[in-house]
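can u do me a favor
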């Protein structure tokens, strides 16, 4: 039986109270990775004091359906397999299926918090509404109850799927429009004509829900996508290929298909036969859509693919090319803004609506501010959150508030995190990296900060 979440008292009065050196905002996956890394440094006698600020009453972030504002829905599953998705040193249980559902992921995150005794570092029920840096560098954090606390550094681990990106669709619509972040279950679709706009993994999963439950279901896609099966040769696809895109568990007889592009061309085939656009990029140039159920729904006639939305006209949606469909509900699966809405940092530079960050962690020109989880790649997220957290913890433990270490990384460590790939040009790819190259770069940065000696990656980058 999991112990009840402990509650640390909320700040009880207005005005600045006793300082805590480092604040981590959020007790979801990225915040828990940060807490473990910082706690490990403290146990080794070379860390800094810290606390995690979490507005909800327990850990788990978006995976907890009771967490206000979560974009999670009842049918959600992990899109990367359990074998490549767990935190370092804490794999997902063998009893888990290859692709766990939201309830199992939440249980895993809470077991992780229990294993490393992380709840004792969390100030639950503390919503951060404002974080502002004073002239001396300290951060003043204002909670929802109006109380303030001061910190020497701020780690934004609040997650990147809280603030919906809402496109401006021309025209007027007589039906209902909502963002995917409010969708919860297929009950919302029954007896309705539904359009899902967007081809990300959540959009495609929600479109599959609509195909099963709606009177009529459509999906609007602006371009062609690579649809990747979750299993190939009975092996989870993410375990068949390494993070560098090369096959690692490949039968000899399939040698001529030994690339993701060749594999998808062979298994998925010509998508234009189904009324979908052909992809114009290779498999690792954009975020993979780990879903081929959607192709079955299209092939069965339960889901109709459409092009980009050109406009709204009463009860109808007008699509590129001039076709029209009558719908009653539009779900905008159009992604999220990577932001920290509480942050007041005028010098923070934005790139494609996302913070411009060196190594996707360090904002140029802003001291004592770190981001964990503000990155995208075609791989399991938690091992990378681990690396990012270890680097931040190493920097904070390096002395001088970590500023010298960060300056060294900004000036002398500029590894190529693209892996030599050209990614699809879009705002979403502003913080996109090749997973293998990024892991190598972060490990090299950790070595550089820990030893003060340039790593092999840095020498190559230099």
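np, heres the sequence
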């Amino acid at each position: 039986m999991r112990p009840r979440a402990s509650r640390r008292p909320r700040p009880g009065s207005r005005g600045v109270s006793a300082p805590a050196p480092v604040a981590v905002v959020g007790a979801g996956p990225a915040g828990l990775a940060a807490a473990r890394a910082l706690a490990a440094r403290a146990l080794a006698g070379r860390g800094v004091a810290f606390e995690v600020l979490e507005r909800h009453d327990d850990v788990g972030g978006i995976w907890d359906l009771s967490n206000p504002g979560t974009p999670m829905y009842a049918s959600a599953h992990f899109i990367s397999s359990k074998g490549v998705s767990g935190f370092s040193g804490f794999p997902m249980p063998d009893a888990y299926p290859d692709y766990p559902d939201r309830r199992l992921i939440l249980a895993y995150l809470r077991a992780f918090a229990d294993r490393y005794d992380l709840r004792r570092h969390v100030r639950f029920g503390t919503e951060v509404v404002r974080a502002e840096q004073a002239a001396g560098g300290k951060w003043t954090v204002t909670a929802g109850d109006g109380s303030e606390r001061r910190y020497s550094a701020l780690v934004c681990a609040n997650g990147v799927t809280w603030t919906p990106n809402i496109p401006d669709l021309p025209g007027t619509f007589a039906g209902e429009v909502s963002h995917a972040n409010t969708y919860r279950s297929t009950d919302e679709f029954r007896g309705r004509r539904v359009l899902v706009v967007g081809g990300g993994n959540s959009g495609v999963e929600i479109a599959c829900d609509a195909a099963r439950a709606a009177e009529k279901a459509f999906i609007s896609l602006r371009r062609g996508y690579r649809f990747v099966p979750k299993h190939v040769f009975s092996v989870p696809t993410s375990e068949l290929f390494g993070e560098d895109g090369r096959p690692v568990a490949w039968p000899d007889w399939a040698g001529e298909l030994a690339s993701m592009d060749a594999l998808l061309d062979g298994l998925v085939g010509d998508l234009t036969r189904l009324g979908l656009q052909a992809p114009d990029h290779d498999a690792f140039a954009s975020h993979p859509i780990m879903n081929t159920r959607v192709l079955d729904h299209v092939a069965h006639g339960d889901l109709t693919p459409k092009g980009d939305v050109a406009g709204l006209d009463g009860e109808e949606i007008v699509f590129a090319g001039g076709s029209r469909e009558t719908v009653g509900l539009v779900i905008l699966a159009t992604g999220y803004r990577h932001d920290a809405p509480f942050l007041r940092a005028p010098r923070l530079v934005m790139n494609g609506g996302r913070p411009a960050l060196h190594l996707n962690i360090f904002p140029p020109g802003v001291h004592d501010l770190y981001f964990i989880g503000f990155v995208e790649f075609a791989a399991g997220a938690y091992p990378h959150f681990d690396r990012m957290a270890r680097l931040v913890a190493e920097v904070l433990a390096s002395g001088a508030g970590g500023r010298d270490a960060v300056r060294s990384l900004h000036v002398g460590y500029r590894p190529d995190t693209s892996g030599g790939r050209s990614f699809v040009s879009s705002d979403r790819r502003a913080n996109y990296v090749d997973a293998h190259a990024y892991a190598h770069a972060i490990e090299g940065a950790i070595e550089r900060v820990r030893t003060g000696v340039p790593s092999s990656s840095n020498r190559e980058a230099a």
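Residues 435-451 form the longest helix (17 residues). hope that helps!!
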